[in-house]
Write a structure and sequence with these properties.
Blueprint: H1 3-6, E1 14-18, H2 24-33, E2 39-43, H3 55-71, E3 76-79, H4 82-95, E4 100-102, H5 104-114, E5 119-124, H6 126-131, H7 133-141, E6 146-151, H8 155-161, H9 167-182, E7 187-191, H10 199-206, E8 211-214, H11 215-230, E9 242-246, H12 250-261, E10 269-270
Parallel strand pairs: 1-2, 1-3, 2-9, 3-4, 5-6, 5-7, 7-8, 9-10
Helix pairs in contact: 2-11, 3-4, 5-7, 5-11, 9-10
Length: 271
């Protein structure tokens, strides 16, 4: 590709998918970092949550989501669901020519840079913990790390239900953070896109000496770098658009999703 061709704007949208509305925290960071790009978000809310499912089932759902987004003409896909990225990202990358970005490696890189004592905790769904994706990513970056992964099966459904300040959420968070505190971790990866919504609660439970890693911010930076490297960015200076699709109740998605996105959701199409 010549230098002139590399600077021709690519107006195709970027696709983002998640098992529910949690991936909207990733979309939010992408919208902030890439305001000139168009986005299509697909929430597979009919099959939420992915965490308790077998990895083979999660992989099947991830392929269906990716195929739906490719059918809508996206130029890059962000697998914003930690469970799906953990179970299926290598297979997705091998099966499609459309570039695929997951949330695991960006979060792992940020954690390795942040840790002081090389003791890292991971809070995630059962599927993500079972896959070993974060453990493997962290060990590939620093084989001397000690990694402590905790499955948090109740958190994502509670957060998706909407009341992130309830005593039930606090009880669950207190239960899941206890073993990580006992393990004296100094850095914790929020390995589910729902968890950033309870960051203030987690900061209080862990205390000021523990760094929390939100992979959404790191993933948005990686998307920006890939577009720049491939020369597939949209024209600078324009305001991008964003559209939403859901496999479940579209009105519920619209209502709950706005809290995650922190921006208006004007309409949601059924897919």
């Amino acid at each position: 590709m010549s230098e002139i061709e590399a600077h021709i704007p690519d107006g195709r949208p970027i696709g983002v998918f998640d098992s529910g509305v949690g991936g909207l925290t990733v979309l939010h960071e992408c919208l902030v970092n890439l305001p000139h790009e168009d986005f299509i978000y697909l929430g597979d809310t009919a099959n939420f949550p992915y965490g308790p499912r077998r990895l083979a089932d999660v992989r099947r759902l991830a392929f269906a989501n990716a195929e739906a987004l490719i059918g809508l003409g996206v130029k890059l896909i962000v697998v914003a669901c930690n469970s799906a990225a953990s179970a299926a990202l290598p297979q997705l990358q091998a099966s499609f020519t459309t570039p695929m970005v997951g949330v695991v490696m960006p979060g792992a890189r940020a954690a390795v840079q942040a840790t002081r004592e090389r003791r890292i905790g991971v809070m995630a769904t059962e599927a993500t913990v079972r896959s070993g994706a974060y453990q493997n990513a962290l060990q590939s970056l620093d084989a001397g790390l000690e990694v402590f992964a905790v499955a948090c099966p109740r958190l994502a459904p509670l957060i998706q239900d909407g009341d992130v300040f309830s005593e039930e959420v606090e009880r669950a968070a207190r239960e899941y953070t206890a073993s990580l505190k006992q393990s004296s971790v100094d850095t914790v990866i929020l390995g589910c896109t729902h968890y950033p919504l309870i960051t203030p609660m987690l900061r209080r439970l862990f205390g000021p000496r523990v760094t929390l890693i939100n992979s959404a911010e790191e993933t948005a930076r990686e998307v920006e770098e890939i577009l720049a490297r491939k020369g597939t960015g949209n024209a600078l200076g324009r305001e991008g658009d964003y559209r939403f699709f859901a496999s479940g109740d579209t009105e519920e998605f619209k209502e709950v999703g706005a809290r995650f996105l922190q921006l208006p959701i004007r309409g949601v199409d059924r897919v």
